[in-house]
Amino acid sequence: MQKNPQLTQVISLSDLAGSAEEAIANPRHWLERAGAEAALLFQG
Q1: Which region, left, alpha or beta, applies to residue 5 given φ > 0 means left and ψ of -120 to 50 means alpha?
Q2: Residue ranges for the chain with pLDDT beneath 70
């Protein structure tokens, strides 16, 4: 699999913490959103 330079992102610790809180509080919604974001990253 080739790396796409457009996919390189910087994720802050606060983003990770917020994502973890959301995943614990509502795992189904978090998984759906994460899947949709991944689909957007890998299309095309």
Answers
A1: alpha
A2: 1-11, 44
